[in-house]
Amino acid sequence: MRVATCTMILASLSLGACATVTRGTTAQVTFTSEPPAAMRTSTGLTCPTTPCTLEIGRKAEFVATFSQPGYHSQDVAVQTRVAGGGAAGFAGNVLVGGLVGMAVDASTGSTLEHYPNPVHASLVPLALSKNRARKQPQPKGPVREDASPTS
What we know:
By secondary structure, the chain is an alpha+beta fold.
């Protein structure tokens, strides 16, 4: 009787954490830029040039910095949200794995996905931004602050 009870407990625990089993704790995140070949850095992970794909923990939220000589750098915030497949795996825990599976999935982040994915940056050339600053329209003639419409 005791062996049967232990076997049932172990079997039910092994069925838990459906999202962790089906989705894993890491995901591929793709980085692209316009123009291509920008360097991308973030929290210890670096792409030599874009486009590139990195394996990143599902729970990780970070800021990706894109840079290239002659262009302004751009930061893109990458966040997490519950994925459709992750929600289905989490729901499977309710039916099969119970609280143990739900706790494992929540702690590993296996129900999450990164967004945006792919992460894209459109870099602005330094020369273009200087030209825009020079082309700011300047008011012509004297400016009257007390001007009021007359009838």
